[in-house]
Design goal:
Blueprint: H1 8-11, H2 16-25, H3 27-47, H4 55-77
Helix pairs in contact: 2-3, 3-4
InterPro entries: DUF465, DUF465_sf
Organism: Edaphosphingomonas laterariae
Pfam family, one: DUF465
């Protein structure tokens, strides 16, 4: 895969230092990031037809990615 859209660097460009700090200090946040990457990769594979997926499944994955992104944004907003 060349460029995976919606990477955390693209979604939160000004908060990568904070993301890294939380990832190192909070294992639950680290798992949230790993899950985001897994779902994002699965969407990318489906979108590029490397592994064809039903439209319903793609929609479900996109909703899940958005939910995880919201959780990441919430965690970032709660840190000083």
């Amino acid at each position: 895969m060349s460029n995976t859209p919606h990477t955390l660097g693209e979604e939160f460009p000004d908060q990568m230092d904070k993301i890294h700090a939380l990832k190192v200090s909070d294992p639950i946040f680290a798992q949230l990031l790993a899950t985001y990457d897994e779902v994002n990769d699965e969407i990318h594979v489906a979108e590029t037809n490397v592994q064809p997926t039903s439209q319903d499944r793609e929609t479900e994955l996109r909703k899940r990615r958005l939910s995880i992104k919201d959780q990441i944004a919430e965690a970032l907003s709660q840190t000083a």
